[in-house]
Specification:
The structure holds 2 protein chains of 2 kinds. Chain A is mainly alpha-helical. Helix content of chain A is 41%, strand content 10%. Chain B is mainly β. Classes of the chains: A mainly alpha, B mainly beta. Chain B: This is Thiosulfate oxidation carrier complex protein SoxZ.
Chain lengths: 284, 107
Amino acid sequence: MKSMMMKSGLLAAAAVLALTAGVSADPVDEQLVIDGQEMITRAKAPEGHPFDEVLSGWLYREAETRKLEEDSFDNPGMLSVEEGEEIWNTVEGTAGKSCASCHDDAADTMAGIAANYPKWDPDAKRPINIELQINKCREENMGAEPYAFDKSGQKELTAYIKHQSLGDPVSVDLSQGEMQQWWERGKDVYYTRTGQLNLSCASCHEQNNGNYIRADHLSQGQVNGFPTYRLKTGLTSLHNRFRGCVRDTRAEIPKAFSDDLMALETYVTWRGTGLSVETPSVRQ
Amino acid sequence: MASKPRIKLPKKASAGEVITIKTLISHEMESGQRKDKDGNAIPRQIINKFTCAFEGATVFECDLDPAISANPFFEFTAKVNESGTFKFTWVDDDGSVYEAEQAIEVA
């Protein structure tokens, strides 16, 4: 009798294992083409990367979600990009300038630019991303108030500027200034377990990408499509997503553009080296 | 209230071809059922009618109601037999009319 019970217990354990294996799902093997332009969604990982191949989050999404990104007309994020274009041409501040006053047509002057951010900012002695670059420009050149995090069109203008690099491969220059040290710090942040759930970025996006966490298909956590259009929250900035992820581990949430998150942005952007900029990507 | 409407249809088609037309307009579609911070009702302002016509003949039209969400998007098909112009019209509750048009060449 006892041995029979043990046997059925083993069988049940085997059934649970089979179930777990059943819910894991690989990224799809498809090509992302946006309005006829091919995107790089699979790239050979840079040296020192834990993966052989880096994969865009697009490959992990459902067919309906993937389709939304293939046509810029269907992509709901493009409405925000158009709003960003209006902001680009709007005069603000005491200097009486708009972005366009100095940078003219973004289609020419901003093409490919955002694919190389974050960059080293020698004035602030820290990495600078597009959002902070916009604020720097507003303060120094336009005489305008810097945008508060996620407010007054910061996301839309960032999306517009990044969209000008659509299709260009992400590449961060770590030889500038102290970028290498910030990369190291970002790596520490990435692998440090935090919060009541004791999770690091790597727990989900490195060890479990391709698996499901409840109904969510975990991706490699690439940032090449930010600001991204999320089906549940609309246009979402990278630092908002970082903060959301950290909140879900039930840890204390770092401030947007804080040193920790700028280091993390530097490191995570590097982890997506070679992927096309997809801004505004469409994600879950 | 609304920004420029967007339309997407092919510039060229062959005679008798069924083409797909997509339209999108930015509009808040305020339902009239919400209240502001002070508890006052926010008045309804929606786009209440959409029409697509080809050379004066209606191809597609519909009435919109308050349950339609912001930035209404339409996708429909039309059979084209000859060259001409598609005209699109959105009518706002405040009487504004937003228009767009695009020609198609049929070979």
